[in-house]
Amino acid sequence: MNIDPRPLYTRATEQIAALVATVRPEQLAGPTPCAEFDVRTLLSHISGGTRRIAVVGAGGDGMAVRPFLDGVEDDRWSAAYDEVRTEVQKSWADDARLDALVTVPWGEAPGRIALSGYVMEAVTHMWDLSESLGRPLALDPELAEFALGIARRVLPDERRDDEELPFDSAVPAPEGADAYGRLAAYLGRRPLS
Predict the structure, then answer these.
(1) 44, containing H or E segment
(2) CA 143 to CA 116: how far, in whole Å?
(3) Does pTM surpass 0.85?
(4) For the chain, how long is the longest CA-to-CA vector?
């Protein structure tokens, strides 16, 4: 795989930022397709994961970064997310980072592979957030197609029993599902409604 995932990651973060901007205070305690997260915790994880990949891009130890962003006031999620996504753009600006070996939760990989994995994670959580908020915005289907391609490459189809793996076993996609629906189903997620 010899692509530059930075433009896709940037597009994903732009969509996430647009979704985060729509979150109303009364939605923060609401459910998400990630059973263990409410919307507030999902925002914390999206932001923390984004900070982690920024640290990786800067050559730091991403594994030392907690994948949650703590201490964010309820009315500051949009600003907090914008701050960490700007860090990612800066830390991955040098083309050499794409071929540098980096360490991410699933092992050591060239930067372009690691960042592609984070595109998959970002797009998946974008769908989670969109579902949680009642699908307030149209999402970019190309991002879901890319993320689904990555998921199929790195996650086996069979049962995913590993407790360390943040994705459940695949479930059938709903009839006529779009790319996001197929991605969510492949990663074991089901729509809230």
Answers:
(1) helix 39-57
(2) 11
(3) yes
(4) 44
